[in-house]
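Input/output pair, single chain:
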Amino acid sequence: MSIEAREARQPWILLSPAFGALTLLLFLPLMFIVVYSFWLRSAVGADQVGFHLDNWLRVLTDDFYHYILLNTLKIAAITTVLCALMGYPAAYFVARAQGNKVLMLLLLMLPFWISYIIRTMSWITILGSSGALNSALMWTGVLSEPIRMLYTEATVILGLVHFLLPFMILNIFVSLDGLDTNLEDAANSLGATRWQAFTQVTLPLSTPGLAAGGLLCFVLAAGTYITPLILGGPRDAMFANLIYEAIITQLNWPLGSAMSLALLLVLGALIMAYNRFLGLSRLTRGLG
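Output:
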């Protein structure tokens, strides 16, 4: 074998473990889900093997699934906007801090050391009828009796923001930390105010990090089921909760597979639209 041929094959040889892991852990299970989505759940509990479109027709034509899907996208969008509004100032503070940034980032990463379920359930002890917030308001005389704070859409969004905010801050921080602070000084020397320097220089240059954090938060929020399961009520179910209910409770794997693929296709279409109008390559360049 010639040297040119060996050099041409070397990248593929180095990438083969990653490709093998992706094939085994991602593509093969996805193919099983695709096949399952065309099976049928019989009345006696056994799955009918074959090519049936009943599950897909049910998911695509039933208004109930449309409503839950739109509600899921709405909650994910609101969560993403709130994470961006709250995460940008925090990321800007860490990126421009004169102290130990490593310690600040370590404090930011501390929530990841605690189980996501435990962090979510902690809101029950805070917002419950006998929780810390109601008790404090009653003790100070603001309330005469507890008010209902749990099991609402607002509580679900609160739990999602609590879960996803560190992801947003980290992405924005990486983008801001890579910027040359002399650019702001140059804008100030040319007569721009600090606000004008921020809005016209820093903010546009940090949009790749903001967009990366927004995309990550939106996809994770749209695909979660733990937060609405713990903090939401019956009317606050998200699409992932329907998938969980179909597969775990009803043991209807074919219907759950069809719903999983439908959610995957919707999120994939949104990512393709993002790539069409904003460009994923611009995002990766900005974070590099």
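Residues 3-36 form the longest helix (34 residues). Strands lie at 40-41, 47-48.
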